[in-house]
Structures are given as structure tokens and as C-alpha cells.
Automatic annotation (TrEMBL):
The keyword Signal applies. Keywords: Signal. Residues 1-20 form the signal peptide. Coiled coil: none annotated. InterPro entries: Cell_Envelope_Struct_Comp, SLH_dom. It holds the Pfam family SLH. Residues 19-82, 83-142, 143-192 form the SLH domain. Transmembrane segments: none annotated. It comes from Paenalkalicoccus suaedae. This is S-layer homology domain-containing protein.
Length: 192
């Protein structure tokens, strides 16, 4: 009898698992619901100030850097500072971008790092390929818009080969911006 009472008491005070992060604009039927919910529960992705996730909004380079740096526990020594005129140390994403730059994952161009600009699908493929240890492609997809000489040819094909980007067809759309939902799916497929 004592054992039954103890067990009942444990059930009463045991924490109940509740979905910690739900966003009104990401219904259960959304293609990226599971990915978004998982990443939000892990503290890797957050909603916006209005409490919604905005799955169709583009993800910025700084937002992507935050997710990747936190997921891989990447940091930079205090003596290192990325040289980018458009990334002041006061920028909210500075430490994440700095960590990715230090680890040779994210780089800028003649315009700088562009932390608040959307990340393109080609940039995302390159950044994720440098962040994670994917299997090298045994075969290459023939994306008509990512020819062999394209700077992101190998990373794009690596993600396709590993099932990270599953958008079928003969086009990858490397210049298109990545949405928050798409990025959630790419990261989720990688870490799960």
C-alpha cells in the first residue's frame, strides 16, 4: 500500500511535458512544424518580437550564424575579431558571426559580412557544408542552375546527396533567399 501511495505522489508532482514553443503562424500541418518546434525547444531559433515565428520570412546571415554557432558550440578566442566594416562589436549577432569567421565557416566579400542581409541558398549550402561533417557525394545531382563551375557546386551537391535539401527537380535556385522555415528544415535534417 505504501508503494502505491508513493507512486501516486510521484505522478502528481512529476513534471508534465508540454510543448514549450508553439507559434500561432506555424500550425501542426506546416511542412516545417516539427523542425521549427524542435529548434525552438532547443533554444536555437526564436520567434520575433510579436511572438510569431514568421516561417516565410527570410533568415539573415546573423540569425543563421547564431543557430550554427550555438548548435556546434563554436566560439572565437577573445583575441580574435573578424574584420568587417558592417559588423560592429555592438551588433547582437557579432559573437556568432565572429565564431563562424574564426572557424573558417562564414566569410564576407567586398561588401562586408552583411549580417542583416538574407542568406542565399548557395551561401547556406556552403556555410552548412563547412559547419557539419557530411558524407561526400557519391554522385552529383544535375542542377541546371548550379553547373560544375559554380562556386557552390560541391556544397549544394553535398546537401542534396545527404538529403538535407530535398527539393526535387533540376533546379536548386542558388540565388534565392532562404526562409526561416527552410533553414529550420535544413538544420533539423542535419542534427536529427
Amino acid at each position: 500500500m505504501r508503494w502505491i501511495l508513493t507512486f501516486a505522489l510521484i505522478l502528481l508532482v512529476a513534471p508534465i511535458t508540454v510543448q514549450a514553443n508553439s507559434f500561432s503562424d506555424v500550425p501542426r500541418s506546416h511542412m516545417a512544424y516539427e523542425a521549427i518546434t524542435y529548434l525552438a525547444d532547443q533554444g536555437l531559433l526564436e520567434g520575433r518580437s510579436d511572438g510569431r515565428f514568421h516561417p516565410d520570412a527570410t533568415i539573415t546571415r546573423a540569425e543563421a550564424a547564431k543557430v550554427l554557432a550555438e548548435n556546434r558550440n563554436l566560439t572565437a578566442p577573445s583575441s580574435y575579431s573578424v574584420s568587417a566594416p558592417d559588423l560592429p562589436t555592438s551588433h547582437w549577432g557579432y559573437s556568432y558571426v565572429n565564431a563562424l569567421a574564426y572557424n573558417n565557416i562564414l566569410e564576407g566579400d567586398r561588401r562586408g559580412i552583411r549580417p542583416d542581409s538574407p542568406i542565399s541558398r548557395a551561401e547556406m549550402a556552403t556555410t552548412m557544408d563547412r559547419t557539419y561533417s557530411y558524407r561526400s557525394p557519391g554522385s552529383f545531382q544535375n542542377f541546371q542552375d548550379v553547373p560544375f563551375r559554380h562556386w557552390a557546386y560541391h556544397p549544394v551537391n553535398t546537401l542534396a546527396f545527404n538529403g538535407i535539401t530535398t527539393q526535387g527537380g533540376s533546379f536548386y535556385w542558388p540565388s534565392n533567399s532562404v526562409t526561416r522555415a527552410e533553414f529550420s528544415l535544413f538544420v533539423y535534417r542535419t542534427i536529427r
